[in-house]
Amino acid sequence: MHALVYTGTQQLVYREEKNPKITNGESIVKVSASGICGSDMHAYHGKDSRRIPPLILGHEISGTINEGKFAGKKVILNPLITCGECDYCKNGKEHLCGKRIILGMNRPIERQGGFAEYVSIPDRNVYELPKTLEIKEAPIAEPTAVALHAVELGEKELSKPLRDVKALVIGGGAIGLLSGLILSKIKKCKEIVIADPNNKRLKECSRYLDGEAVNPDSKSIIDNHFDIVFDTVGLEITRQQAIKVVKPGGVIIHIGLTQPSGNFDFRKATLQEITFVGTYCYTNKDFEKTLSILADKQIGSLNWIEYRKLKDGSLAFQEIHNGSCSAPKIILLI
Amino acid sequence: MHALVYTGTQQLVYREEKNPKITNGESIVKVSASGICGSDMHAYHGKDSRRIPPLILGHEISGTINEGKFAGKKVILNPLITCGECDYCKNGKEHLCGKRIILGMNRPIERQGGFAEYVSIPDRNVYELPKTLEIKEAPIAEPTAVALHAVELGEKELSKPLRDVKALVIGGGAIGLLSGLILSKIKKCKEIVIADPNNKRLKECSRYLDGEAVNPDSKSIIDNHFDIVFDTVGLEITRQQAIKVVKPGGVIIHIGLTQPSGNFDFRKATLQEITFVGTYCYTNKDFEKTLSILADKQIGSLNWIEYRKLKDGSLAFQEIHNGSCSAPKIILLI
Hints:
Two copies of one chain form a homodimer. Chain A is built from nine helices and 19 strands. Chain A is an alpha/beta fold. In chain A, helix 3 packs across helix 4 and helix 3 crosses helix 8. In chain A, about 55% of the residues are buried. Strand 17 of chain A pairs antiparallel with strand 17 of chain B.
């Protein structure tokens, strides 16, 4: 099969690879579309210890079952594979399973990803494509589930409903925009600021999101002002902004993983009782809820997604890296 | 009046000071007992920007009303003075009030503290001493309220009851021991580890707390093991231990303020969905609940408190500084 293979830092090669083989309880999917995620970019930069070259990246995947129980069905994949038996799995927190693995990773266990013609997946990670959702846009389900999980973790922490809070979203990538759209269109939050240094992206976000789209140094980002801050970037500098602008008793939801450690103002976190919540992926329930959100078009138009061909994937990674790409999400079509 | 005055880094002088004057809505308290808090130690080390010498420290106070509405009554003081009018004050979160001030601070507003014969206090910060509580041990109410607030913030975050969790308390000072006692005796938590490098203190803690008292490098402090970790120290190194040993989906409650910033593993916080909660003081409700806990002897014997005379206060500070003092709490008697 053809596949886009991550072969080294900032190197992707479109080449012939061996087809995946079917195993018990699994299916082979003929991939239709595969989205590029921030964590793929992180791997591309040589900074992800879970993704070591050579590897086929990609875990936001839609396609048609080629071999397996549901052969012929159009599907969306939940790429988070878990043991199903531990306390986390049994209590609806599958995403915290100690044996979890995601498609397009090879540490601790190898699972080739979706930037290829075919990919293997356990049957229980397969969801039927809702009729109202186009197969090419369906990979957006995965980051939407990430954003939904993050927003609802924040919702649980707040002492007032999301519709009444001031929210700041740091980062205008897919997770930032999707968090903003869920806050606005589903949770009815009326005061949303979204911040990104890339003006092209901001413009794109502001076409779809009912909020204020600004640069990170904007005067709209007031100190001690926001009830909740979503850091979808995860740099030392974005975390430092988050803690500066969150108000006493407020909440920081931390989704990004760009810089794994760094300095932080624990004094304010303590004296002002800030709650900092790390968030990762989604539960199975979140994934199912996301599919119904997308089927019902609850987050509006998905025209902010840009589509490229898999064979041109290397250029897409490069453009995201350069910042010359304005789209919050690029999906590769196979 | 006589007072123990903080005159410079590691300098305390017992000397004559002006008596406080009564103002509208306030009382003058003849102080009976005044506890030494970690934050007083922080000031003593010249590291608290809210406590600038010369200043009378001390905010854990019991005594008798000398002048004012309740003259003659034996009282415990809630040293956290708030505006009573802001959103925080009106919604039971007085401790987050933007105008809050604590006795024994002089930034942004001066309020002389309790290491003196007399102290002034707003009438609404005065609580009657429960009959079953000795006036000399009553200052323990303040740190007990801090610990209760911290434990109950943690309780809200957990997905299972405190009686079923594994808890680590970092630090065997008053806040650490009190958090442990509340966890054990009130919340019925059965698996508590308390860690401190000071073996004398550990021994003292283990006499009162039904838990394992260990050094910070003990094998009992297992990585990814604890549902909840209380960092009552707040050093970079204790926060790093907290994030290392908390289990996926777990909670860190951060009470200490020793090191205001520092490096932290945000990667684990994110990938393992750790919730980090800063906690500060207590609400009025917490303070009232604490008084009934102490009145009912719910946390058991308070014989771990050591008593000294106010005039010998300087030596007590020195011994706490040196680590030669084993008591988790020293209360100065006036």
